[in-house]
Design brief:
Number of domains: 1
CATH class: Alpha Beta
Pfam families: STAS
Order of helices and strands: EEHEHEHEH
Protein name: Anti-sigma factor antagonist
CATH architecture: 2-Layer Sandwich
Strand order of the largest sheet: 1-2-3-4-5
Shape: globular
Organism: Streptomyces huasconensis
Distance between the termini: 49 Å
CATH superfamily: STAS domain
Family: Belongs to the anti-sigma-factor antagonist family.
Length: 128
C-alpha cells in the first residue's frame, strides 16, 4: 500500500507590485486543498494581486485540488486580479485539459514566463 503524505508547503514571493508567486510543494488532495485555498485567499486579502501558482513540486492533484484551483481563480478575479499556473506537471496538465479547466486557467511553462506575461499584459488590480 502506498502512503500519501497529507502535507502542503507554500512559499510566497512578490517579484513585482501586485504580483505574487506561490510555490506549492506536496500533494493537493482532499486533505490539503482547503489549506491551499484558505492560505491563498488570505494572501489576496492582504493585498489584491495577480497570483501565480508554481506547481513544479506538486506530486499529485485530485478533484479537490482542481476545485481549489477554480476557487482561487474566482477569488483572484473578484479581487480584480488573475490566476496563472506555472510549471504544471504533465499529469495535472492532462487533468486540466480533460476537464476543460485549461480553457480559463492560464498555464505558463515557468514562473518566470508567467511573471513576464502578467507584467506585460495586465494592469494592476483596480480594487484595494
Amino acid at each position: 500500500m502506498t502512503v500519501v503524505p497529507h502535507t502542503l508547503h507554500l512559499t510566497a514571493r512578490y517579484p513585482h507590485e501586485h504580483l505574487i508567486v506561490v510555490t506549492v510543494v506536496g500533494n493537493i488532495d482532499l486533505q490539503t486543498a482547503p489549506a491551499l485555498r484558505t492560505r491563498t485567499a488570505e494572501i489576496m486579502r492582504q493585498e489584491p494581486c495577480h497570483v501565480v501558482l508554481d506547481l513544479a513540486q506538486v506530486g499529485f492533484c485530485d478533484s479537490s485540488g482542481l476545485s481549489a484551483l477554480i476557487g482561487i481563480w474566482h477569488a483572484a478575479r473578484a479581487a480584480g486580479g488573475s490566476l496563472g499556473l506555472a510549471d504544471v506537471p504533465d499529469r495535472l496538465l492532462r487533468m486540466l485539459a480533460v476537464t476543460g479547466i485549461d480553457s480559463f486557467l492560464t498555464v505558463h511553462t515557468t514562473a518566470a514566463d508567467a511573471i513576464t506575461a502578467i507584467t506585460a499584459s495586465r494592469p494592476a488590480p483596480l480594487k484595494s
